[in-house]
Amino acid sequence: MRDLIYRRLKVMVMVMVIVSWRCVLGLENMNPIFFDEGLSHLFGESNLIRSPDDRSVRLLLDKYTGSGFISSSMYQHGFFSSLIKLPGANTAGLVVAFYTSNGDVFVKNHDELDIEFLGNVEGKPWRFQTNMYGNGSTSRGREERYRLWFDPSKEFHRYSILWNPTKIIFWVDDVPIREIKRKEEMNGDYPQKPMSLYATIWDASSWATSGGKFSVDYTFSPFVSEFKDIALDGCNVSESLTTLTRDNYNNINCSASDQLLMTSDYSTISPKQAAAMRRFRERYMYYSYCYDTVRYAVPPPECVILTAEKDRFRDTGRLKFGGSHTKVHRARKKRRRNRSTPVVSAEL
After folding, report:
1. Which residue among 90, 106, 127, 199 has the highest number of C-beta atoms inside a 10 angstrom radius?
2. Domain-embedded: residue 212
3. Which is a Gene Ontology cellular component entry for this protein (predicted)?
């Protein structure tokens, strides 16, 4: 009897934790999909392993091929989310990506929203970047690069992309790490055409780690990335279109879906989340295109230039103090010690 009560209490606690977590981003109204419900194989079929319950998938990279999956439908705006765990050990040269794109349909004027995880040599942390392309603006990339406050290979964390008519927000768990508000001056640089969701793992030895200095070491393969509880919410346009063109995608009526996206919890950043975003960007962002005056003499129109943030970056958009948030904090601590001011740390 005691064991039965204990088990029931344990289940109740787990349910309460899950429900409270899901409410943080409004996920209580979303149901993670089965693979067959909304996803399909993209490439490297032998390296794509689906779980028996069809709720999760493993993507492998070995010396023969990487692997990936794609959403079965295209979405005109949406919220795309997944729990992801990255490979461990020596991951130099490889990239795990979770992103939206329409490059297979709009070849010369595609849109894209990226979360790309960049591997590293053994003992060095994973890094990742977010990016936005609109209307084929590959020469006008809008990269930001960061470190994480946890080891993404140890356990699952949720990574999400919100895209609606007025803003884009990238999330890590319940922390918004980047917000892009649409400005009229952006014109086509703001993604406007329907996109599919993608997830891939692949060999990017030519650039992923220290500009290509370190390549993938296949003695550590296979490299395994895991995706589960994948959620897709948005205006599914695949049934409305036979052939996507510049002329007809604008005729799709997504007003009801867009209204839900724009009023959902995950499209609104609370004051507490805004403070967490500021702390994240202060501690873990080490490159921002908005401060890269070498590439952009005039910052792109969506950039919000913060003096306190700008002072931390060189003209190349990279951090001063050697480009490490650790070195930045050491320098700050040294200045504080010199002022005899106590150092106060805050949880992200």
Report:
1. 199
2. yes
3. apoplast
